[in-house]
Design a protein that fits this description.
Structural class: mainly alpha
Helix content: 40-55%
Radius of gyration: 25 Å
Strand order of the largest sheet: 2-1-4
Order of helices and strands: HHHHHHHHHHEEEEEEEHHHHHHHHHHHHH
């Protein structure tokens, strides 16, 4: 009975914690906090200026005069401290609100000086804080999510869970942030705690190992492989592909070399997939007797490790766009860009304006499917090419199809009727498959003669050796468009499932000041301040 009573108590605590962290309550509290912060800044009551300046100083000390995007420079505990500071600022985006001008400027300055890998680490900790605020009792009693499992457990099971919870609490980001931010280090206890936290930095920092793409021995990349107990998110990227429905196999995968024998080879595994496997089983009623197929929750999905070099590429592209994020008009251009901005601003010597109709004159969901097929055609045509941007294009292309077909609620604002369109396309693809389950290149050749995507692929071919530079740039912009148009609530919901690359890109754009919310603009304005917009 005592164990049962404990279970009831903990369930009540859990429900109360979730109620207090509901989106409606959070939005109200964040709006009040935002308004009070703005008033404080306007009355010269600096809330974060000193701490923000300290963060910049610590960053400059660690980075030095020069830094490289692939380097981990910030100590783990210092990075957690920085992430906790930004979490206090950027949690407003969960409620579809936006930060104030001063916070935007500080974040922009910080992220333009941090390395790509350190930016990834900061964002991962921020998202971990958001997850714990929404889905655990971290802010109520400092307990782990595992405490919920104590309900209906036997006494020894409860004790084991409490021991695990204590371990996770000691090494949690909240503990590290609290010690680094709020303990001055003047007492012996503070000094001991600082040293203890710093001693765990090497254990907690992200790890990278070499991984390879199947069927392409030249495509080897460093991928995230953090020990599970210190992992803050899934560290994986899901993938789907439209061109392989007949094979009924999963998309190509990446393998971490250290998980295989010393004589590792890139063996044949799950194939590049069709995510349309269940199309024939799902029917959506239409007008009168007309019925359409709809695809959802496709079976053949690959989970690939998070590629270090891909993140650096995305980071540099968003950072490059942030050069122009100095006023409302430019921020709106970045926010609405879905490939056209990159095509307009292609590097000198690359003429790609002929591709503009394929991003500007079609719905976003149609655009994704068309570019996905065209990318697949060219990727298989250049099957032995050694080109990073070719691989990045393939990864983002398959990832976007995964989102549209398997995460429709997440991308509902931009997804349109992608599932119906994909189902109809599948019916057109089947006659070209000819029962061949492995002739990917042959299928792509047949598609190029029959679909609009074939015309797009031919236009891309005109770019010669520079085509993959253009294709990868457009894909990053399409990914950024989807990330910035998904509401904060939807981003927060996927945190409970391990997290998505899309959410990292969303927060990265926010940090660079490239996020625009129609109701608020590019940062929060108090009534009466609109006359000063010229300074932005």
């Amino acid at each position: 009975m005592l164990v049962f009573l404990t279970g009831i108590t903990k369930n009540v605590e859990r429900l109360q914690a979730l109620n207090l962290s509901s989106f409606s309550r959070l939005r109200k509290s964040m709006l009040l906090s935002l308004q009070s912060k703005k008033i404080a800044f306007l009355t010269n009551e600096s809330l974060h200026d000193d701490e923000g300046d300290q963060l910049i100083k610590e960053l400059n000390v660690q980075q030095g005069a020069r830094y490289f995007d692939e380097e981990v420079k910030l100590p783990e505990s210092t990075m957690v401290k920085h992430a906790h500071y930004f979490f206090q600022i950027f949690r407003v985006f969960i409620g579809n609100l936006i930060f104030i001008y001063e916070d935007r400027e500080m974040s922009h300055k910080y992220f333009r000086n941090v390395s790509a890998i350190d930016a990834l680490r900061v964002i991962s900790v921020e998202l971990n804080f958001i997850y714990e605020v929404l889905y655990t009792k971290a802010l109520k009693h400092g307990l782990s999510k595992l405490d919920v499992e104590i309900t209906y457990s036997l006494s020894f099971g409860g004790i084991a869970l409490e021991v695990i919870a204590l371990f996770m609490l000691v090494f949690s980001d909240w503990t590290v942030a609290g010690i680094k931010r709020y303990n001055t280090g003047s007492s012996k206890l503070d000094s001991f705690l600082h040293k203890l936290v710093s001693a765990t930095d090497d254990l907690r920092k992200p790890r990278f190992v070499m991984g390879g793409v199947e069927r392409n021995i030249n495509a080897a990349y460093m991928v995230l492989d953090t020990p599970f107990i210190f992992r803050r998110w899934s560290e994986s990227i899901s993938a789907c592909n439209l061109c392989f429905e007949t094979s009924k196999e999963s998309s190509r995968k990446m393998y971490k070399y250290h998980r295989c024998s010393s004589n590792f080879r890139l063996y044949e595994a799950e194939k590049i997939i069709s995510c349309l496997h269940q199309a024939s089983k799902q029917i959506v009623g239409g007008c009168g007797l007309r019925k359409k197929l709809m695809i959802a929750n496709t079976k053949y999905v690959s989970n690939n490790p998070f590629i270090k070099k891909l993140w650096i590429y995305i980071f540099k592209e968003v950072k490059r766009k942030s050069d122009n994020a100095n006023n409302l008009r430019e921020v709106r251009k970045i926010f609405e860009a879905r490939g056209d901005l990159f095509l307009y601003s292609c590097p000198v010597g690359i003429e790609c304006h002929h591709l503009l109709p394929y991003v500007a004159q079609a719905n976003y969901d149609t655009c994704i499917i068309m570019w996905h097929l065209a990318t697949e055609m060219l990727y298989n045509k250049d099957s032995i090419a050694e080109n990073d941007e070719r691989e990045f294009s393939k990864f983002i292309s398959d990832y976007m199809m995964y989102l549209f077909l398997n995460q429709p609620k997440v991308v509902s604002n931009v997804g349109g009727i992608a599932q119906m369109t994909s189902a109809e396309l599948l019916n057109q693809l089947r006659p070209h498959a000819n029962g061949a389950t492995r002739d990917v290149e042959g299928l792509c050749r047949r598609l190029s003669r029959n679909f609009e995507a074939g015309n797009l692929a031919q236009e891309m071919e005109r770019l010669g050796d520079m085509k993959w530079k253009v294709i990868s740039g457009v894909w990053v912009e399409m990914l950024s468009y989807a990330a910035s148009h998904v509401k904060g609530e939807a981003h927060a919901q996927v945190l409970s499932k391990g997290g998505e690359l899309l959410t990292f890109v969303w927060l990265l754009m926010a940090h660079f000041g490239c996020l625009y919310i129609p109701e608020w603009g590019m940062h929060y304005e108090r009534l009466g301040e609109w006359t000063n917009w010229s300074r932005f």
